[in-house]
Structures are given as structure tokens and as C-alpha cells.
Amino acid sequence: MAEPSFARLSLLFFSFLLIFATYSWVLGPDSGFLFGTRVRKTLGSNPKVHVDHSSEKPHHPLDPLTVREISRVRTILSGHDPGFGSGSATIHSMALDEPEKTLVVQWKKGNKLPSRRAAVVAYWGGQTHEITVDLDSGRVVSDVVNRTSGYPILTLNDVFAASQVPLKSLEFNRSIEARGVKFSDLACITPFAGWFGQEEEGRRVIRVQCFTLQGTTNYFMRPLEGLYVTVDLDKLEVIKIVDKGPIPIPKASGTEYRFGVQNKPVHMDRINPISMEQPDGPSFRVEDGHLVKWANWVFHVKADQRAGMIISQATVRDSETGEPRSVMYKGFPSELFVPYMDPEEGWYYKGYMDAGELGLGPTAMPLVPLNDCPRNAYYIDGVFASPDGKPIVQPNMICLFERYAGDISWRHSEILFTNADIRESRPKVTLVARMATSVGNYDYIFDWEFQTDGLIRVTVAASGMLMVKGTPYDNVDDLGDMEDDSGPLISEKVIGVVHDHFITFHLDMDIDGPMNNSLVKVHLEKQRVPTGKSPRKSYLKVKKYIAKTEKDAQIKLSLYDPYEFHIVNPNRKSRVGNPAGYRIIPGGNAASLLDHDDPPQIRGAFTNNQIWVTPYNRSEQFAGGALIYQSQGDDTLQVWSDRDRSIENKDIVLWYTLGFHHVPCQEDYPVMPTVAASFELKPANFFESNPILGAAPFFEKDLPVCRPLASS
């Protein structure tokens, strides 16, 4: 048998590309960053500005850790335990240990910042340590071993090391040769293990699945089906190899998606480039790197290793008094749950928790100008810590831009009862904060869109590659009774496995302050009209119910039992007596249909309902628990909510899960057109009247003269 040394180099190179594309090192000139300095695209007359991350300082209590602070934490940890100096201790996450909420709310610009602390999750000796480092005193103030069932978020070093392990196995190498695949074409990824009992008990394990790169960069469409490896992550040993014999490998032709190398004809007319122009410049500004001010909105935005992007302290100006009013203290995607619907060996464990198992920050690639974000976008970097504690910069991770797509904020024309020609219309211009993350085969785009009428729209879009299954069949007529086993045939020898996407959001709503909010369930109840009272036979009546405890707020949506769900401050009322509030407006959605005793659903129990409300608790940030990798579901939103704590007139957190079932089709091959789902946070008696009644229309004289060329 040939020695697979080339395979080791190929996998090393493949993994290096993954890491290089994901991490951009800030220390040293060879990385493309000189001591944290890089060029950022900005707005205005000066199109470029140098951002020196190495000298950045925090300006706001919620600002992320800086390059200097991360380096200082690394030094402090080196003196705390020998494991950090020797390399036996690995840092799996490092982030700002945010100050107490009351301190943040009370802080004003110009005041001294609250004490800066770092929250570190590290792993060594088979134990997960949650460490708090005080940057002011330069010491570790807490080091606690987490006793819950899971393990910390994986590092890319874990992924890289695990992908090499199968090559140590003679059995694995023979299986590759039996499939006629060159080791130089081998590409292996590491699907996460989930938790299914004894095999995963007491050790970190991961699966390895391989593909061939021969003839394409889109290796996801060319799986080596039937060959599955389980690896011990700590010992870096093969635990088990399952080989069901060679299954035909799907073709390479037709799988390429890069624009520069495709040779497929496009049978549509060219769409000319489009760009929104702002003659007077942008309407928003970013202060101190993270504080965004636009129209009547102010909010803080930052990159996060686990959540990707966090929006904090969102306030909107009152339309009557001009005072800034609190809407949301903190909002972010708390977890993504993607279960696949194939119970067979090699597939049953595929139920991904992308935020808690790998993180949305490290996998956020630099956004592509003009395509991911328009020309008028402003970019923000992410700053994280590597597994050995060194600071890294994730360039152009978040973009901000104003959007105008011809939509209308409000309008009315009146022609019936007046001689005047009344035509009033106002354009809808919004501000978007966006990030995109490439978690393995899938890409997710997260948008937080702010409107001047006080509405916040949150959209999650999915694109990228399907996780496909190889099959011997070329046509649906050949499948017979197997057609519905795991998914439809979408190309020759390619099955698109059915799966779900669920994204659970943590929404710490603070309507006019943090302490006095309640959930009001506004029920539309059908009433029967008494005989003879009216020609009508039925109508809908609104009845309101205040949720007293958490179980009152475990909500499954239903079209035939309609509710609205309002977060209100009963202590702030309008002039006609309504409590100030915001309501959550679900968009198209889907519910998890898995049995509650199914292992993936036990871990993903936060999708048992679409809406939850819990009392604010600093330790309850992530719906799947602090430690998700191989967790057993003992620290989830479901567990917390079942405590049935009081939520009336309290500081409360709203949780919302959006999702969709995905039955693949041919149009999803070889790369999937974007599909999106969204929800809205909309004012409900928050303002005294329409807050944009006085907004000015656009006039021709305010815009540059741009006219189309004459048609030929």
C-alpha cells in the first residue's frame, strides 16, 4: 500500500486554508497586519482610514476586549497555572465579562468605565475551567470547574488535529484506496458527535467524514459515502471505523460555483450594476468603533466569538419629547440547531449546534464588498483570542449600511372629498447591521434592520452547500421504495438529505427601563353574535392575559388560535392609558417535529416552543447551555423555564426561535440560492402616534441627475 504522505500534506494544506481564511493574525508583519494596524473602508471624503487595533482602548462598558487586553489576559493566565505556559491548557473562548447590567445602564459617556474583566473558558486535564481575569488588578479572581455534561466550544486546532487522525489507520487508508481516490485529492471534515450515550461518555469525540477534491473545489458534492470515522479528540486516536463498502462517488462536472472558472452558459440578460448614492454622505455615524447613531436610533454593536454579532442598548428617540427611550438591552442569535433526518449509521448524529459547538465569530469570513454589502457600507472588525491566547483580528466581519429599495414608509392619496390633489408618500430608508458566517457547508447571513418608525426587523438567510449523501442511483425511477428514505435525488448519485434550520434569539427587552416589564398575550377570540342582534354571525374580540410565570410564556404558535405577544412596561402609560410596549411579529416559521426523547431534540429542547420568556439571569445567555459540545440537555432553556419563576413586572428576557424545514430540490445544487426567514419587533403603544408623521419626502432637487441611456 502506498504511504499516504501526500495525503497528510493535502489535509494539512486544506486545513491551513480553512484556518487562514478564518483567522487573520495581528501579530507580525507577515500576517498582513502590522501590530494590529489595517486599512478599513469607511465613508465620507476620505475613503480609507488606518485602524490601529494594537493601540485601541475601550470607550464603553460593553466594548469587546482589545488586542492589548487579550495579550494582558494571556500573560496573567501564564502566571496562574503552568498549563498555560506549557501548552497543555487550551483557551476555547475569551470575551469581555460584561459588568452588572445596572452599572451599564447607569453609565454615562465621560464617566469612568466599570472594572474590565475577561471571561475565559479553558480546557485541560479533562476538565473545563471557567476563569475570570480582572484586568485592573492583573489577577485571576475566579477559576471554577464546570460540572455540567458538555464540553467547551471547539477550536479550529481541534478540527485540524482530528482531520489528520484517520490517516494513522491502515484500515482507513485501504478504504480510501479501494474507492480509487488519490490521497492528494482527499478532503476530510469533522461533523460534530452530538450525544447518544455510552460511546460519547467521559471523553471528547468527533466524527470524520471525507470527500474528494478531484475535478472541483466543491468537495461537498463528492462525498465518500459509507466511510465514517470516530476520533478521540484528546488522545487523537481512532475509536471506530465504519466502512459499508465503496458507494459510487458523484460526478465533479457541474459542481463548480466560482465565477471565474465556470463554463456554463447563462441564459438571461445582464443586470447592470446598482448602487445607492448619497450626495450628502451617510446619515449614520459610528463613534469609538462600536456606538452607532442614525436618525432616531442609538445602539452598540460588537463582534462575538460565539454569537457572531451582538446588538446592545438599543434606544429610540421619543417622537413627542425627543428623549431617548430604551427598547432592548441585548439581542443576539443564541443558538443554531440543524438536525438531519437520516437515522442511518454515518448520519444519525448529524444535529449541529453551530454557535455553541464551533462559534459564529471564528467562521465569519471577511464580507465581500459590493456583493455581501453595498458600496455605501462601513465595516467593523472582530477581535478574538486564539487557542494559545494571542489576539487575532477578523477583518470586515460586520458591515453597516443604509438601505433604500423603493419601499414606502407611509402614504395616502385623497380624491373623494376635496378639490385638492393630495398625494402624500414617504420613502422607507433603513439602517442594516450585517454579518455572515460560513459554518462548514452552510453560510448564514444575519441582518438587524432598524426603521425610523421604531421597528426592528431581524432576518436570517441561508445559502452555501447542501450536506448531501452519495447513492448508486441516477434517476428517481431507479429508487423505487427508497425514494423517501432520507431525501430526494437532486442530481445523479446525489441525495439532498432533509433537515431543519432553527435559530433561537436571546432578546433582553427593556421597554423604558430594565426592571418593570411583563408579557401580555393578546388573544383574538371568536365570538358568536346572538340571533337577531346583527346580520353578522361571528366576529373577533381582543382579550388580554398577563403571563404570571415562565410556563405561561412557553408558547407554540398556531394560525387557528391567534395571539399577539407584547412586552410592556405597565408603569409607563400613554396619554390614553395604554402601557408602552413592543410586540414580536413572527414571520414564516416552522416547528421541530422530533420526539422530545430523541437525543438531538433533548439537546435542542429550546426549539420545543417558538416563544419563551424568562427572568433575566446573567448565566442564562445561550439557549443550549454554557457548554454544548456533547451536552446531554441538562442546561437548556427548557430546563431553566421549567423552574416556572415569576415574570410579571420583572426584568425579563424574550426568546424567539425562527426556523424552516428544508426539503432539498435540484435548484439547491451545487450551491443554494439564499432562503430567508425573519421576525419583527414593532412598537405597540410605545409612541403617542405615528412617530414618522413629520418625516420629509424626497425631492428631485435633492438627488443627483441620473438618467438611463436611450434604448436602441
Labels describing this entry:
eleven-stranded antiparallel β-sheet, 35 strands, nine-stranded antiparallel β-sheet, 712 residues, mainly beta, single chain
General description of the model:
With about 700 residues, this protein is mainly beta. The chain is about 10% helix and about 35% strand. The chain is built from 10 helices and 35 strands. The strands form 7 sheets. Strands 1, 18, 19, 22, 23, 24, 29, 30, 31, 32 and 35 form an 11-stranded antiparallel beta sheet that branches. Strand 20 (about 410-415) and strand 21 (about 420-425) form a beta hairpin. Helix 1 runs antiparallel to helix 5 (about 155-165). The longest helix has 18 residues, at about 5-20. The protein is globular and about 85 Å long. The termini are far apart. Mean pLDDT is about 90; it is low at about 5-50.
Q: If helices are DSSP runs of H or I spanning 4 or more residues, what is the number of helices?
A: 10
Distance between the termini: 67 Å
Helix content: 10-25%
Structural class: mainly beta
Q: Could you list the spans in which at least 5 consecutive residues all have pLDDT below 50?
A: 5-48
Proportion in β-strands:
35-45%
Cα-atom radius of gyration:
27 Å
Strand segment count: 35
Instruction: Provide the residue-averaged pLDDT.
Output: 90
Q: Can you summarize the main beta sheet?
A: 11 strands, antiparallel
Coarse shape: globular
